[in-house]
Batch of 3 targets.
Target 1
Amino acid sequence: MIRRTLVTLALAAAVVAASSIAARADDTINVSAGQKGAWDEMVMQQGVDAGIFKKEHIDLNISYTAGGPDTIVAVATGGADMGFGIGTTAVIAAFAKGAPIKIASASFTGASDLFFYAKIDSPINTYKDITGKSIGFTRPGSSSFVAEHILAEQENVQPSYVATGEMAATLTQVMSGQVDVGWSVVPVNLDLVAKKQLKIIGHGSDAKALQSQTVRVNIANTKWLDAHRDVAVRFWRAYAASIDWMYKNPNLSLANLARYNGITVDEAKAVLPFYPQKALALYPVSSFDKSINDAVSFKFITAPLTADQQKAIFDIVFVKK
Amino acid sequence: MNDRRRVFAIQATTIVAVLAAYEALARSHLLYAGVVPPLWDIAVAFAGVLADPATYTNLAVSLAEIAVGFVVATVAGILVGIVVGARPWLREAVGPYLDGIATAPKIVFFPIAILLFGVGPASKAALGALSAFFPVALTVAAAVRRVNPVFVNVGRSFNASRGQMIVKVYLPALVPAIVNGMRLGLGLAIIGVLLGEIKLSDRGIGFLTIDEYNHFRIPQMYATLILIFILAVGANVLIGRLETRERARRAK
Amino acid sequence: MKWFAPPAAIAFIVAVALLEGAARGGLMPATVFPAPSAIAAGFGDIARNGELVGPALITFGEALAATLIGAVIGIPAGIALARSPSFGRAYESWLGGLFAAPIVLLYPLFLVVFHRSSATIIIMGAITAVLPIIIQTRTGMLLVPHVLNAVGRSFNATPRQAFWLIAFPAAVPAIVTGIRLALIYSLVNTIGLEFLIDFGGLGRVISDLYAQYDIPQMYAGIVTIVVLSLVLLWLLDRAERRLRPA
């Protein structure tokens, strides 16, 4: 009699324990970001380190790609459920060509993370001095390209444009004198500025027309989003909370950033002024029509998105109050 | 052996000359100093790379991708090689396409690998497999045609089933070709996997190299490349020695 | 090999029909593998956008330049190594090792020194090309039949005559093989590099199409590369057969 009761109690306890574990099981999301180490690309890692995603019962598999197009492919093929920090024009182009993706939120608005530099002994001191000089960019349609053209128009200068590639190649060409002005995204090359080998001659934030344009967005795989809307809401709630946490706890978040990049905390602190919190706002996706025009003029797509497409491309499940 | 001494002297002198020329270039300021670090910096960076646990975790990922790709390629290559080599009509039907794809640089199939296998290690293993498959398949196919007909007839006269024919007659006769194909394939598998990592990955020794490039840690990049080269050439030398030993053993 | 033999053509038609059926039946997501009809349309697109002929010429030009440099450096080097047994033996294993080494992985080094330019592509292609040429030249010269040397001696040929009239011509077939290998390897390397650094001809086109998510066009480009490789192999085959003494 006693044994039967004990066994029943044990079974009951086991069931209760099992069901509570089942209820607590975290949802796993595969996420993919580009430019590992950049402040705005590390939001999820910061959130994981701060335990914010755990509180929403979400487990993240974070992977990093070499850039926007690769992240798009990862999400379009289902290799990742969501992708982060992708150029808006690239997303527009992929959507127009049938990629099963939706824009889930804004990622980065403006170009404040960009800066332009010259050798310390260069006669160039500000962007106004670059008429007739050469300036490097990654490729047509890139954020460096767009920012440089907007700034040139704004400051009424006529530089010559050279496709120098990514930051490392650009730096080499500037240092060897083949190109007069280079571009960089913090924190890369800030150390050379501190060492007085380079000087900053302009900021992306100087390009006024660009300040209100959401240049990077976050996307989700259409099928995944349709099947996991509740998980997505919890995810974005945690993501928004992570951004808040990063700015409310700079000592901790900058120490994390230093660790992610293998730089000192002081070098990490130099990065923060380049990222005003409003640049990371998840909503709204601003100046979207301008991004569509960019996509057309850079030949990513042959015709602008139709009105239906412009509505269908968005699927924003969570807007922070 | 005066000869061997002479050879060694030439090799040693060449190495010293190359290193001296590089050091001269590094100090000449002909090129931006950041991209040609002095030998000492590279040596220090190399020690750092060897001491860093991240090097070994990344190396393990690459080795796993190479191993999986290589094994898949070898098995598939042997099977396809035997099947295609044994049937003339199949050879004529499929041969040109095998040759064409074999000649194309496998890295251009990279987007297909990503589309089919995702962005993780599987796509890199797939690229390695694709790269290593062709040397094995083509060498085996060519060798199948040269299998001594006497052995084939003996097998047939024993009413051997197809499976038995493959295992007891064809495979033993094909071992040299298989090993030769594997040797070519291993080098290509290494290149395929590492290039795939450089193009799109967030782990692996190839990724480590491009990561150092992106962060402009140039001495570390040189050091990692040297490490990759030592391992790749070492692997080739090892298999070469195995092949020689195998040949000597069979000659007895 | 009969390139347009019925079996090969039949295989092609069968494969295309199967893939088209699979695509239309919804078995393959268009993202991963578009229907052959879409790929065929992609050909039209890239041809119209000038992404076919021009880039192909650039790619072949770079590979040819690399092979030429490889030959200009490699043939004399191979001859020198053949004539000096100690140097030849000293570098023999190194050359073999370098041949198998993943040279293309050094491209970040070349990028920082030569930047994203034709120089990087051609120089790296030249390194790939010079190795088989040196190896084949030396091997060819060393394998000159003793009979020919004996004949030369019996005619009291001077060393220079012996070299230019006997040894070198006898080594030409091997040298031609070396150049053929060099052309193929440098072409492979060139396309691969173009894809990696997003610069140059066909490889860059594939990379751009991938970046713009033009998937059917990208496949069309890949097929083009495979077809061009086939054509090149066939041409080299014909050329070698004609150059070889009967």
Note: Strands of chain A lie at 27-34, 58-65, 82-87, 101-109, 114-119, 134-137, 160-163, 182-185, 198-203, 214-221.
Target 2
Amino acid sequence: MVGGRNDGHQPVAGRSHTAQREVASLVSVNKSYGTQPALRDFSFSVNAGEITALLGPNGAGKTTAVKLLLGLLAPDAGRVEVFGRDPRSPQNRVRTGAMMQVGRMPETLRVREHIDLFSTCYPKPLGLNETLAASGLRGYENRFLGQLSGGERQRVMFALAICGDPDLVVLDEPTVGLDVEARRGLWEQIRALANRGKSVLLTTHYLDEADALAHRIVVMNRGSVIAEGTPTEIKASAAGKRIRCNTVLNLPTVQALPGVTSARQTAEFIEIQTADSDRVLRELLQLDPGLRNIEISSAALEDAFLALTHQHQQQ
Amino acid sequence: MFSIYYKEAKYEFLRLLRFPGFSLPTILFPVMFYVLFGLVLPTGPSAGVTAAKYLLGTYGTFGVMGVSLFGFGVSVSNDRGYGWLELKQASPMPLMAYFVAKLAMAALFSLAVTGIMLGLGLTLGHVEMSAIEVARLVSILVLGSIPFGAMGLLVGHTAKPTSASAIVNCLYLPMSFLSGLWVPIQFLPQALQNFAVIFPPYHMGRLALGVFGAADDHWITHAIALAGFTMLFLGAAWLFSGPHARPNWLASTTNASQGKVATN
């Protein structure tokens, strides 16, 4: 855990220097609601200056993970740290902005009044005009919340998350229920946050959204992480198969084989991700006739994506 | 720090003032009742004072109770039920500010409703009261937002947003009648009069009437009763908020289970 060092101001923009610095993490967290487990041995982290997407179908535990990170829930077991501290500490609250799924907000207040109230809680807020600009709300400042459409309300929620100029922005399903145009508008605003060096965690059940926005995607289903990587890695592993085997070949040789997306050495196996398992297997057997313990499986990702696509069809 | 409390209170007040579903019934109705029964169709004197004077105490209590019950009960229930309060908890705003703002709002609306009634009573109703009596009546009524606010908080913690308003009405109207706020308590059957002590508005009404000598019992017993009700309601609200319920008003100081966050 190195996030604790990040006591200075905001992370430096640009990924290369900061990519490995965690600003928030859940470590081996278990959380149940009564007898219903929501998260099982769940670990993930948000890196400084990056957009991390938590991707999974409804009921996967995304919101639970977010609430733990925001200190709104306590884990049954495991550890939650934000900026190296308890997420509920006041020092963290002023560095964190959150957008959550709110069914109804006070409708007889104006947009600028909501922003004013939330801004007051932060030491160095963006100011009204900059907040309005960063959330696409220019011209809406005097409107009452009750007069706004669903998409416009989402933008107000986004504005409340960023108005304090926090270092960590947590967005729970920010684009749910938005039309295509509004979604793309919000994507631009989320990208702009990362460009300003902010760390962003967003949850979504749209693969294309995670793909379009995130530096890193954490795919979860039924309370567990099933894959983690860059959007390219995630898409490749979702499309292909996983081969596990014992071989005399060394890792670089395997990685260089045609058709291999990625490969890694574990204690027992070499594990290969590929889009063309037949071809890779033929190559492997040619180079190492003594190949043993071959195991081919479609990645666990497939389950998650099946669930995701299933949901999309229903919508 | 102060500005957070100030703004939270200001916007809480504006939010409710602009919502006709709140400001109309809670301010207009008690004032209308007072005008109707105290000024337009006054009955004979009660407990030695004119109807216009007597009803200042009881409809004043009625008004303060409505403002506080609806202001706390319905809005807390909504904020909890639709996730708004949770968003506030995730923000740096101290939860206490949310609490204090609601109380300040209830006190302000109480001041408004009693102010309007007093203004009407002193002018159109020819009520004679000394400045000290006026000040005491206003203070007592405004302080009444504390026990009634606590009662509203309990409703807010237990009722779903869809039913909170109905529940508040079911408490507000029968309780007002049974506490002698509509019809002077001495005109109710003896059984009901004995029964009235279990209702907080009865005690509030007696305190208010005592200001101009229309209740001869000792104020201290009513003050103690109201303090007791307040503790009871706050305690129950806290219990119902439970370890898993949201919000945990007192989570940071009392909820041991949350201590796990940064351990292991």
Note: Residues 186 and 208 of chain B are 16 Å apart (CA to CA).
Target 3
Amino acid sequence: MKTEDLKGIVKARRNNRELGYKNVEFLLGEIEELPLPDNTADVIISNCVLNLVPDKSRAFAEIFRVLKPGKHFSISDVVIKGNLPENLHKDAEMYVGCVAGALEKEAYLNVVHNSGLVNVTVQKEKQIAIPDEVLLNYFGQEELEDYKKSGSGIFSITVYAEKKD
Amino acid sequence: MKTISILIFTSIFDKKVKYNTNLPGTFNKSITVTSNAENSNVMLRVKGNVKPKAE
């Protein structure tokens, strides 16, 4: 665990205590190894987190394990269509915006399917427009024009799936 | 009363902005943060003033 993670959880727990919530609990752990027993959650939600997890298959296997049978998850994540320049994909600044680490859309959905979850549905999809001045850090002017015409891009998707009863 | 358990994944980011502390005076830095929020690109401006080192 990084120091930032520990500081974050300490702050969250302090805020929770000060606000007096009794039905909220903060857990610190790896998504690939959730610190929860099997069949615990009625719903799992997440926004822009799973694409940052190195082992996505393991993460979705854990989601499957902790979901109660018949219950569902709804997750928004960033995915890629087509090809992105390698340096953009790995850039730390893009990591902050969930772009680095993102899988190609079909590969992402395959990971969800392969975890055993059913009724996998993409409920929402929208393109994330990155300003030209940012993209020009990764492309030459001509390459940028080609990239725009190629249909490649970065998308936010919301995926729903269930654990069979 | 029926209770349900909701598990929410979250993560914490921090972004460092560097400036030259050897150059006294004001500085302006900006970074663009891209995300999947409705306003997907947000420019953050950081302004400050570097004071000369005390002799």
Note: Chain A touches chain B at residues 4-5, 8, 31, 36, 40-50, 52, 66, 76-78, 93-94, 96-99, 126, 128-131, 133-134, 154, 156 (CB under 8 Å).
